[in-house]
Amino acid sequence: MKTVRILMRAVLLGMVSLLSFANAEYAKYKDPKQRVAVRVKDLLGRMSLEEKIGQMVQIDRTIATVQFLKDYSIGSVLSGGGSTPLPQARAADWVNMINDFQRGSLASRLGIPMIYGIDAVHGHNNVYNATIFPHNFKYRDPELVKRIGAATALEVRATGIPYVFAPCIAVCRDPRWGRCYESYSEDHKIVQEMTDVILGLQGDPPSNFRKGVPFVGGKDKVAACAKHFVGDGGTTNGINENNTVIDMHGLLSIHMPAYSDSIIKGVSTIMVSYSSWNGEKMHANRELVTGFLKGTLKFKGFVISDWQGIDRITSPPHSNYTYSVQSGIQAGIDMVMIPFNLTEFIDDLTDLVKNNVITMDRIDDAVGRILLVKFSMGLFENPLADLSLVNELGSQAHRDLAREAVRKSLVLLKNGKNESHPLIPLPKKAPKILVAGSHADNLGYQCGGWTINWQGFSGNNYTRGTTILGAIRSAVDSSTEVVYRDNPDSDFVKSNNFDYAIVAVGEAPYAETAGDSMTLTMLDPDPSVITNVCEAVKCVVIIISGRPIVIEPYISSVDALVAAWLPGTEGQGVTDVLFGDYGFSGKLPRSWFKTVDQLPMNVGDPHYDPLFPFDFGLKTESVPSIVARSTSAGVDGKPFVFLVMISLIFALYFTGQAHIHTKMALILLVSLSFSG
Question: Which keywords does the record carry (predicted)?
């Protein structure tokens, strides 16, 4: 009997041990079958204060280590502008770096994965060989920006990154602002329509999805970030990070609507603006961040600061960091882009909580929102990236999409000295043409800021793409001699008997405050290039800029004028419309001023008197459509007429005379149609 009792006791102890082990192993937050809210609540209940504060931290990759991520339960890591694993890093290099960091997070006590973020504001713009799409200040087509969002998501995921600081949904009310090219328009309605890019980045939420709840639709999508809340595009004189002076009605009617739309579309995160509203720093504005964004608009994702955003609550920045931490967290910021002084932030926030200055409820709200996004996007189930998408980076399909975006968004401002003599479409076949200007053969200038580096670059060696000059050489007939001079003098132009010239000029790359400009002039010696070339030969001037710039003094001397904005890596989109493979269809997303003294000036203002009004854009037909239209009326029953017309129009086009003799061809068509 004694032996039996001993055996029974051993069995019972074994069963208890097994049950204890099972209970220890099972945690609701690890169970994907549980509802997200249940998982968030379960995990929050297991976390210490230190682990919760760690989740509120975002640090730059340059200070991140596996040990840091493990010991502090760091919530997020980012790459700032130009912060890469190594020069010209491949997709696999990014994946390996991010997975190493992630393994540190997974080795922490609770194994909470970190979320890696990056600026991807016009494609995956930090990464070598990525497709660089045109900057935002070009688009009018929601379906197109949605496709661009989806392509960007694929390229970002190809490098193992699940989170992007995009889109910028600012409403730029003054082109002197250095971030104006990050805005879609001066018109909030266009900006609202362009929030469809969020659906491309994150995926389409199901029809029964609850408003305000973050949504990310799979491993080929990313969490998006609408920025910068709120009013960043309305600062006085367009000064970056300055003060937006406007009443509540103006704020709600101009700057707020795109945020409401973004929340309805399931945006995961929202970034707070450096700027102030009527003198109060947005990073410390509890009324708008907690009261309006989280309360009235019912946003359920997390609110993130900008880079060192809480530091700049004080002037000078970081002069009273404890106060900044308190003000920012109490305002409603959930995750802080520190990005370097990790321990100072953790120590200050810990003391503020332990001394009951900041409540645990506020901490739990912040961490619960962060965990909600991580659970919703499947980060707990798929924390590590793989190499399955590496071929998406810079794929031909994405480059073709970028090329389409370029040609659809170029705006034709002038076409010929008079309407009866248009210069565009240009003939592909001509004895000799001139290409000139600082921007004709400079991929960095073509892409603008936020490309490879924060402030962009100059030259053709930092990523892959096609310059405007390269696109022209590919587009013209093989017999056409293309002569390139960045700054030709007038004697050179006059002595070479060019058939026509293409001149590409504009702004150098810039980002943020470095782009603030009270003069809005083009680079030197671009004005003299326009004069030297356009006074001697028929010319098309292409403006490469992030906003309208001063062009009125040169209008009379140019034959055709094109606003190409910042087209990105695919220069063929420019030549697609110059040479008539496609027609011009773009419209101005903002008013083009006559002089800077008029600024700020937006459509609907009492003093509205632009050089080119909002929504202006000349149209052209493609050469194929001209051919089809020219022949359609006379081909029925007259195959001979059809063949004659096709031969004639193509002969004129490829010999450089289409822009002169189109009317003659039409007259001939009419004559032949009524004969016999």
Answer: Hydrolase
Catalytic amino acids? 306, 512
Exposed / middle / buried, residue 204 (Cβ in 10 Å: 0-12, 13-18, 19+) = middle
Judge whether residue 383 has pLDDT over 50.
yes
Order the strands of the 302-304 sheet from edge to edge.
Answer: 225-229, 269-272, 302-304
Distance between CA 602 and CA 368 in Å, rounded? 41
d(CA 468, CA 435): 9
**Cβ partners under 8 Å of residue 654, min gap 6:** 427, 428, 429, 477
Average pLDDT estimate for 349-378 = 98
Alpha-carbon distance of 616 to 619, in angstroms, equals 10
Among residues 194, 295, 212, the alpha carbon closest in space to that of 260 is found at: 212
Q: How far apart are CA 647 and CA 262, in angstroms?
A: 53
Number of other CB atoms surrounding residue 619 within 10 Å: 11
Query: Which residue in this structure is represented by tokens 């924060």?
Result: 454
Enter the tokens of residue 386.
Answer: 């793989």
**Alpha helices (H) in 26-135, listed in sequence order:** 36-46, 49-55, 66-72, 91-106
| Contact indicator for 139, 146 with CB cutoff of 8 Å | no
Mean pLDDT, residues 374-398 taken together: 98
pLDDT one-digit tens code per residue, 181-201: 999 999 999 999 999 999 999
Alpha-helical runs (H) found in 128-169: 142-158
Task: Kindly give the pairing relationship between strand 276-277 and strand 280-281.
Answer: antiparallel
pLDDT at 542: 98
Count the neighbouring beta carbons within 10 Å of the beta carbon of residue 5. Answer: 9
Q: How many CA atoms lie within 13 A of 139 on its CB side?
A: 33
Q: Looking at residue 237, what is its pLDDT?
A: 98
Smallest CA-to-CA distance from 312 within 290, 284, 335 is with 284
Cα–Cα nearest to 170, from 242, 246, 257: 257
Neighbours of 510 (CB within 10 A): 20
- The DSSP result for 437-462, as a single string, is STTTT-HHHHH-SSBSBTT---SSSS
What DSSP designation does 426 have?
P
User: Rounded distance, CA 476 to CA 106, Å?
Assistant: 56
Q: Sign (positive/negative) of CA torsion 552, 542, 143, 393?
A: negative
Of 81, 41, 87, the C-alpha closest to 166 is 81
